[in-house]
Specification:
- Keywords: Membrane, Transmembrane, Transmembrane helix.
- It is a single chain.
- The chain is mainly alpha-helical and 161 residues long.
- It has one domain.
- It has a two-stranded antiparallel sheet with strand order 1-2.
Length: 161
Amino acid sequence: MDDKSIIADKLDELEELMLPRRRTLLTWWLKIFSYFFLFAGAMAIGIYLIMFLLGNDFSVSLYGLESSDRHSFITLLVMVLFFIKAVAAYGLLFEKDWAIEVGLVDAVLGILACLFVGFYDMFGTGRFIASFRLELVFLIIYLIKLLKIQAIWKKSPAGLN
């Protein structure tokens, strides 16, 4: 009886050693976009603060949501979306336990924003066809990739650095 538990413990340890490191689960394009959005999120937060401190307006845009008025709700929404993207990128690049969940929220919010902009163009402006956002394709691929690696991510060890 005692021998079986020792063997089971050793098998669990062996399984842990065989799991890939979390960073290896990320594809090259996911790493590139993560670095880009980590930088873009930091820049967006800085620009948002500068807008209010200096009283300047900057044009901001993400997923077709565009604004150049620092007091508008769209500007705040774009900045929040950039912040969520930056947090997801940080979590993925630094192999945090919560990274996949934040990434899934990021992907779903991005898809909803793209769909909103597309349908708003159709119904809000009186066009007959909804506009198609190319970002939607990339967000769906991102969502699928995160869903595929979610189970392994939870089991895999984080890196030492």
